[in-house]
Amino acid sequence: MLTNIAQVSADLDLNSARFSHTWCACSSLRIHPRSRVSGLSRRCLPVGPASSRLILRAASDAASRGTNPKLADHFGNQSRKEDGFECDSSLREVVQSTKEAMVALQRRNPSIQPLLAIVQAGEDDSLLEINKKMAGKIGLNITQICLAKECSEDEIVEEVLKLNEDPRVHGVYLHLPPVAVTTRVLDTLKPEKDIDGISDLNMGRLVRGDLSKGFVSPVASAVLDLLEKHDAPLEGKTVLLVGGEGPLGLALQCLIERSGMVALKSNWNPKSLQRQVMQADAVVLLEEGNMDVPPTWFRPGAAVIRCEPTLGSVEHALEMSSKSGLGYLTAAYRAQNVLRSCSRWIQEQQYRPWRLRSLKLQPLMPVPSDIEISRAQIPKPVDQLAQEVGLLPEELEAYGRSKAKVRLSLLERLHTQPDGKYILVAGITPTPLGEGKSTVTIGLVQALSAHLKLNSFACLRQPSQGPTFGVKGGAAGGGYAQVIPMEEFNLHLTGDIHAITAANNLVAAAIDARMLHEATQSDKALFNRLVPSVNGVRRFSPIQISRLHRLGINKTDPASLTPEEVSTFVRLDLDPSKITWQRVVDTNDRFLRKITVGQASTEKGQIRETGFDIAVASEIMAILALADSLEDMKNRLARMVVGTSRSGQPVTTEDLGVSGALAVLMKDAIKPTLMQTLEGTPVFVHAGPFANIAHGNSSVLADKLALKLVGRDGFVVTEAGFGADIGMEKFFNIKCRASGLRPNVVVLVATVRALKMHGGGPNVSAGAPLPKEYIDENLSLVSGGCHSNLRKQIQIAHLFGVPVVVALNVFKTDTEAEIDLVCQIAKECGASDAVPCHHWAQGGRGSLKLAQAVNEAASRASNFQFLYNIEMPIAEKIRTIAQKVYGADDIELSPAAKAKIDYYNQQGYSSLPICMAKTHLSLSHMPDKKGAPTGFVLPIRDVRASIGAGFIYPLVGTMSTMPGLPTRPCFYDIDLDPATEEITGLF
Asked: Which residues participate in catalysis according to the annotation?
């Protein structure tokens, strides 16, 4: 037995006690400046669920009573048998199913609260109570944006754009006059939030029959529901739609025809309308305004439904809706759409399987120049690449067509997603020419993704402009294993290095300015300037309060400080001879290695010696690479030590008051940059710390983002700078400690050229022709290099419990005998596998054997372990690296190094990991000692600390942090075609 509509309404009323609860949980009300809103005591103003009211009338009843169908005020008084419709049961079914779906959704996602946002013009509160009651019944939240009655198109668009980007909003209902819902407004509204189904895309989906992503008009759904539950089955019968050329009419026509009925359309034409109405089994009147249809026109038993605008008063609307139940039914369908939108949004947040479209390569012989190869391939639009690898549009910040920043919110979205496999590409001790770790990294991911169809990401460092214009040229890989566009990769990229330069030099400026002001002002004058009175009120800034707390002064009122506390607070008292912070520039400029500052008369004699480093040598770059969140980066920036006070206390950037500004300058740089390889596989480019004085690895964040995106069975391939004794050791002991990540496989890159050098071959110099030993076959030199340097580097990897696959980067001068010998000896020395790689000439296809070997090695368990306990004394950690990694007998600490170690112990820095700064051209500290030297003592001339980055770096020999330009720099070959804007000379 069906419960009547009045009872459904009463049931809803019973829940009114908790409506205030649900209503107050709504988002805050935004009121447009031009609007006038009454009832401001309410946090949210309710709004009606539809822009039209449904009036339903059984034709037989209308005919017998002689009532005009457009005035169906007494419909609710008819018995259920007479009206022939089951609005009450329809409402109950929709409400119940929606409530059950809501409970299920919130059981799985308790923090999610579906929210409907209503954009309204004017103060028409029609049908608002219905929406409130339906929200309370189902558990939906509603927020309303009230615009002025005569609001402009721009004002509507502005509000819609805000709602589009608000992740809390799952549905947007435009409760606006039809004239205000313009094409521009519809184009602005995101289809996934268009729960009334009025956007072009949603209408197209409905016409095509694809409702997996679209929405159907709640009004149309309510009308169809009533038609389908008419006493006389309407399947195969004719439904006449009168008037209405808009979205509602089209939606109804599609739904009616899909339900097995025949839909006919007719305009309001009295000449033909009477005949059509008399022949129809059901009539739906869609025309706005007054439509006077004589009752005698309708067939006995025909269903008559009228959709007309809600133009009446609130009281009238509520009266009509409570009598007929149709307003509630429409509101219920709209709530159902909001819940469906929320469920889809939650599903969109889940991990997405990749749909990567690889780019085809057609390698040429001979292999063209790198830039010719790069230009011959058209990269995919970066938003397309992002979509293919499972990134959401809101997680992308495009920088042009082919590169984009990726937001760190991805980590939170995919925090439950298992990580993929973690592969490190390292190398044997290189020649000055480099052995191709970057090309191997790129060739490997091209092979994994484009050929083996395994998800893979390359994570690379951003090249410094210094080497690009100095001695190296481009750093985007080479041959058919490149990141494209290679010009953008090598030049500026997304400006991260410039941000680091600006932040670093802001610290330098703050240091000298503070020293000047302290030297020329009294304590009182300093305090008055550092804590100025603004509008008669003097307050400490948050960063100043932090300094007070570190000084043990737990006061927040500037007037309460004693003279002694004021002096302690305002005076950093930096010792000019112990300032460790230098300025930076991203150019090889040897004449900036030592400079004198403060020589202008305005600096009042504050002259001191300082210098410049290259930008990538800045501690801020090391921090960027090691931070695992924006908060972590901010904290690390605050901990950076810039010098020592005359009393021997470290002075930090937070003491200078500049650390917050540094975070602001770095807020975009912390996001990795997405690019692609020649074969369309994804690459993260992020950070570029030097590997001699810093840890020489790309960022922790890029690796973490990539590991989530590739999925459990995917691969993230990251590269460590220089040889395994430097880049790999620092990757394990520093980067893995900071990230908590554990590698599965080490790919050790070797070349016949480097092995011959370690086997006793003559010196190799950049820019000079290769000696004949490196061009002609020489198995003896190859064997010597394998049994010395290659064996030692494999052993170093095994110290950390990680399997090794040797990748022999094949050059055209290598012979088959030399290649076979390297692979054979590498396996004898403990490598899991050793394979030749031809990626430079063939792209990913040339690294298929390497990809298969890595896949197999990664399937076996890795027993990763750190080389040393972090709590060991500083000297013992240095000794452990020297003996176990470099092969030294012992270390020798200079008096300066011993003094620094004592100082760092005193300051509580002894538990930091070690970042050795030594030559990359030998396992020892002597660049000319090749192979695997033994029997030497490693001299430690100084020990320094990067407290913000989080490591101690001992100096082995003289290390330059500012390269110089050679006689003929690379910039001789770099040029621009002004007509085409094409760059030449970058390889």
From this structure: 437, 439, 461, 472, 691, 722, 811, 840
